[in-house]
Amino acid sequence: MKEQDINNIIDMLDGMTDKDISRMKIQSSDKLEEGKVEEVYHHGRCDVGSPFAKGCDYDIVPDKK
After folding, report:
1. How buried is residue 53: exposed, middle or buried, by Cβ count under 10 Å (0-12/13-18/19+)?
2. I want to staple 56 with a disulfide (CB 3.0 to 4.6 A). Which of 13, 26, 30, 51 is the partner?
3. What pLDDT is recorded for position 40?
4. pTM score > 0.70 for this model?
């Protein structure tokens, strides 16, 4: 790992704490292109990826016309 990569990570973490983000889960991925960062907002302890977290109405059945 290059020193600049380490500095980039520190800057990213500092930026998150500046935004008062108190909990972070950091994962690396080979599926994202190099240098790309993806953030997922967590509404609670168990809803990441849920319809609520994605802003979808999960309890409404669409009309079939």
Report:
1. middle
2. 51
3. 76
4. no
CB 16 within 8 A of CB 24: yes
Structure tokens at 49: 């990826």
User: pLDDT tens-digit profile of 6-41?
Assistant: 998 899 899 989 998 877 888 888 888 887 888 877
Pair 36, 30: CB distance under 8 Å:
no
CA–CA separation, 31 and 4 (whole Å)? 22
Q: In sequence order, which ranges of the chain are alpha helices (DSSP H)?
A: 3-18, 51-54
Tokens of 51: 């319809």
Token code pair at residue 24: 């972070």
